[in-house]
Structure formats: C-alpha cells, structure tokens
Specification:
single chain; alpha+beta; Thrombin, subunit H; seven-stranded mixed beta sheet; six-stranded antiparallel barrel; 6 helices; 21 strands; globular
Length: about 350
Amino acid sequence: MNLKSVLLPSLLFAGLSSVSVVFANDMFVSSEMEPVPLGSVENYWTEERMKNAKPYPNMIEDEEPNLLAADNIASLADGEPGTFPGSAPKVSKALLRKILRSTASDTEAFDIQEEPSPLGYTYPFPFTRFYVLTSLYSTYPYKTIGKVFFTEAGANYVCSGSSIGGRAVLTAGHCVCNGNKVWHTNWTFVPAYRDNSRPYGTWAAESLTTFADYLNYKKPCRDVGFAVTKYNSSGQKLSSVVGSLGFAWNFNVAQVHWNSFGYPAESPFNGRKLVECQASHAVSDSPGGCTPATIGIGCDMTGGSSGGPWIKNFNSSVSGMYNYANGLNSYGYSTQPGAMYSPYFDTEVKKLRDLVVVK
C-alpha cells in the first residue's frame, strides 16, 4: 500500500513543510493512505496472519531510567487540566440489566482503588494484574479496546489500541511508524479481539498520525499515535459500534490511579486475551532527557500491549464522568520487567487528539 505524508499544523503554526524538515515540538504529521477497495486490508488479515504477527519491539535494553526527583513529579502540566467525556454505544435497557447482573459478582472486573503515594514508589512498583473476564468483552468500556495489526518491511506485527471518538483509534507512536520516517502499512484495528474472533469487525485505517518528534527522532516522551479508520460496510463509524473512551490531560500524576489494558503477546502471555493492570504513579522518567517526562507504573505486560490505554476514573458500564484515556503502554526497560511507561498527556497530546477525532 502506498502512502503520502502530509503535515498537520498546530494552532500556532503558520506554514507547511515536508516531513523531512525538523519540526517544533507542537507539530504533528499524518500519513494518508491512498484509496483501496473497502475490505482489501481487512481481507489481508486472515486468521493465520493474525496468529503469526509478532509484537512490535519497544524495549529499552541495558539502561536505567532517568528518574526525576520526587518533588518534581507534580510539575508536568503545562496548563489547566481538562476532560472530554466518552460515549457508550446504545443498548436496550434489558441488555444493560443483563450486563450489570453478569458482572456484579465479578469483583476483579471493577476498579480496586488504592491511595496513590504523592512521592511515588521504589522498584518493584505495586500493581494488580489479571485477564479480563470473557463476559466483559461485550460491555463498555472494554469493547472500546482492541488489537492493532500492521506491516513493516514485509513483516506483520501487533500492538493494542482503543476507540477514542469519531473514527479514531488511540495507540502508541511506534504502532503507526518506526520512529525513522517510515509509516506502517496494512494497518487495522480489531475491537474486543479474543482468541482470533472479531465480534465488532475489522477496521482498516484511512490515515495515521503522530508527533513529528516521534516520526523523525523516536522520542519516547512523544510516543503517541492515532489512526482514523474507514466507515464499515454498513456506513457506520467505529465509535457508533463500540463507543469511545473519554480523554483527560494535564492532570497531576501523583493523584492518579490507572487501569491499563493491552494484548501482551510475549511470554508468559500469548496475545489472545485482553489483560488489565491496576496501578498508581510510581516514578517519572526522562529517557534521553526528553520532555515532558514520562510516567511509570507497575505492570508486567510484555510486547504486544503497546498502545493499550491507561484509563483514569475507570468504571464498568458507565460513560460520562468516567473512563478517560490518560496514558498508554509505551515502553519498558529490560532492567525493570515489572514496570511500564507512558507519555504524559499534556496540552499537545490534547491538540493531536482534537485533529483526528471528527464527529
């Protein structure tokens, strides 16, 4: 599949350039996929190709985190905190009652809140991790989360992602490009994927978007990506079918507890089921000195979970003031197998989200 790259300016940018130019931190780049027949990308992803796709690598080997002092962890925000509400797909009252009854006794399905430590934690960081129950895959917000498939240099890979509004999918920057000016192809999203099933269809990308600082320089602090998916064969958009997560930015990480999700595919996991971690802020990292500092939590998900959302104010079967995407599985260190890091969701990430979420 051929791609053509275009530049998406922030509100402060007044000109256009090619993607080979060094951009400012508030610049975003998008790769538009040339038109192909509806279903061609979806048909490429046979069950066999999905089973054999490998986790896309994003592990920092043989290095230690560049941790910030504890008294700096609350100073990441560059503006007032804000939120956009998510939306649950419409269901009948009878089905909603059935969902609530089926999950009421599943104690692990609900957020186990713990009081975040204002000073973070020392490694190993505390967390709880488990497989998401099968009965929950058809409920909100679990059904907004899915598995990402794409091709690079003839090899097939997997990541994770989530419906974030309109036709957009939130994922990691390295799940839309390689950080060296090359975009992925054959990109598709399968919400509520489980054991090779596709209960809500296969959603091919129309365009891919990320920070120029990630596309060109692979800066971990800007490892955020989005895809805009096509309408399905019935003319529906992604969020109309599975709903969408809300979005939160500029929050004090020392006061946040997250439920993180993904499809880890490296041992001891196999990528066939959705995994959930529950954890609070542990450390803030600055790999290579990039800013804003990234966020670290306890979580032992492996490759394949990249791009899965960190959800703030998690609550099953409820939208509105709950279930805000506020981070994502980005990278880990080989020296810290029980830790996961995310870019900080600041005003610039919010601007990027605004560009791709079209009602």
